[in-house]
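<context>
A single protein, sequence plus fold
<entry> Chain with its tokenised backbone below
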Amino acid sequence: MTIETTTTGILALIAIMTVVTLATRFGGVFVMSFVRISPRIESFINTMASSVLIAIIVPMAFSGDAGAVAALSVTAALMLALRKPLPAIAAGIVAAGLVRYLV
């Protein structure tokens, strides 16, 4: 199936992606409304979020550019020191910007 790359085709693709995204998000909430949240399921949900984050970050740490490695390093160090995610993420963004600007 191909869709022309005209304005109408692009808008149709955006609309399709919007519907699919909303269906998966609302569908997940709908399905989980029938599941009793036991401590085991709660632990699974909390752990799954961390594993997805790690799956995104680890390849970047090994194959990313200097800005990505700087951002990861600064964010990790500040997160361990401060235990507050927002300042650590902000510092990581600043570190990546500075390294990419200077290099």
Q: What stands out?
A: The chain has two domains: 1-35, 38-103. The mean pLDDT is 91. DSSP finds four helices and no strands in the chain.
